[in-house]
Structure formats: structure tokens, C-alpha cells
Amino acid sequence: MGATGQDTRRILLKLSGEALMGDLDYGIDPKVIARIADEVKAVHDLGIEIAIVIGGGNIFRGEGLARAGMDRVTGDHMGMLATVINALALQDALERNGAYARVMSALKVNEVCEDYIRRRAVRHLEKGRICILAAGTGNPFFTTDTAASLRAMELSTEVILKATKVDGVFDADPMVVKDAVKFDSLSYIDVINKDLKIMDATAITLCRDNKIPIIIFNLTKKENIKRVIQGEKIGTLVSGE
């Protein structure tokens, strides 16, 4: 299957909060989250252990609130809580689809979900439960991309699948520049030197230092998660090569 490959058994899927909006301007589109849950379950049914890190940009962005004058730490904490809302919604959609899912939060919100504890998360994955990891790293000033890289290392996932609204990484914004060129593969250093902004520099550096490949792909195309897992050459592979 490639990277992923036939031996892939554990992955980390990074979802942005915006991915849940669909065509809405704000919040969660029930049809979109149901489709994502359906595709995640289809991959899980292949025997793949799945951890998911989810953002909160469809509800709050701490950095944006800070630019508007709010204290950055307060804004980031609000953004982390937004990721918990999204994680609970995704858990509900997965469970309605017959999957077993657990939300684990880096912030303590024990009335609605578990605390993130690495060993417990590993055990959930081994028992066939999908782990939805909320509240980023639990610290302000760190993005959910960095959280995805950190959790990928902690949970020994073999690859990070970063879901976007375009077909991979391009040399210009393909939504604006119609003849933008897609990269089939990039090195970690290419991403940093070209300032491609697919993930923040901290996240890319963590992946580089721990040799975790990243595949950036289009989530809006049906069954793309499964296609990536089965080794189809879609999206852009970021690795050390």
C-alpha cells in the first residue's frame, strides 16, 4: 500500500474544524460529519487503529480572537474547548454508525469525556476503539497541528493523514491560481524552506525528527481516506526523502 502501506496498522487523522462546516459559514454540518464518520468507520473496519486530532476553527480560533484584542491565552483556551465540542459531535456520529469511540481531552472536562492519558489511549486503540483527541496539547500558543505531531509520536502511529479541502500541496493557492502546480512529494526541509504553511514549523520539525510521514489529501472527495490507506497515489507525501 505505500506510505501508508500494507503493514500500516495505526494512523493519526488530523481534521480541521473547518472540515466540519461543509457549506455553512459556522458550526457543524450534520451531513458532513455523518459522511466523515462513515468513511472513518470504513477504514477502521479494515483493521486500522485510528486516532483523530480535531481542530476548533469552525467555532473559535484563539489566534484570531487575540488579533481582535482578547488575551491570547484566554482565546487559546476557548479554542481548545471548541475542539472538545467538535470531538463530542464526531464521537456521536461514529457511535450512531456502529463504531466504538472515545473522546480524550488534554484539558480536564471530566463530566463529558476522559482525560488524555497516553497509556489509556494506546489501550483504547488496541481494543479497537477510535480515539478522538481534543483540546490540542492543553497548552496555549500550540496549534492542533503540533498536537497531531505530538500525539502521533506518543501513540507510535505510522503516518499522519492531514485532511484539507484541496488535492494536496500546491506552489500557489489552487482556489485562486487555476494553473497552480501540485507537489506529489516533498521533504520536511522543502516545506519549511518554501514556507508552504501546510502545518506550522513546530509540527513539521517534530515529524522530521521522529521520521513520521505526512500525507496531505482532499477530504471533500468521497472515500479518499480509504484510498490513501490502500496506497493510491493521491495527495502529497511529506517525508525525509
Describe it for me?
By secondary structure, this protein is an alpha/beta fold. It has a single domain, classed as Acetylglutamate kinase-like (Carbamate kinase), CATH 3.40.1160. It has helices at residues 30-44, 62-67, 72-96, 118-126, 144-154, 188-193, 201-209, 224-229, and strands at residues 10-15, 49-54, 101-105, 114-115, 130-134, 160-164, 169-170, 182-183, 185-187, 214-218, 236-239. Strands 4-3-5-2-1-6-10-11-9 form a 9-stranded mixed sheet, with helices on both faces. α1 (30-44) crosses α3 (72-96) and α5 packs parallel to α7. The mean pLDDT is 93.
Summarize the structure.
It is built from eight helices and eleven strands. It has helices spanning 30-44, 62-67, 72-96, 118-126, 144-154, 188-193, 201-209, 224-229, and strands at 10-15, 49-54, 101-105, 114-115, 130-134, 160-164, 169-170, 182-183, 185-187, 214-218, 236-239.
List the helices and strands and how they pair.
Blueprint: E1 10-15, H1 30-44, E2 49-54, H2 62-67, H3 72-96, E3 101-105, E4 114-115, H4 118-126, E5 130-134, H5 144-154, E6 160-164, E7 169-170, E8 182-183, E9 185-187, H6 188-193, H7 201-209, E10 214-218, H8 224-229, E11 236-239
Parallel strand pairs: 1-2, 1-6, 2-5, 3-4, 3-5, 6-10, 9-11
Antiparallel strand pairs: 7-8, 10-11
Helix pairs in contact: 1-3, 5-7
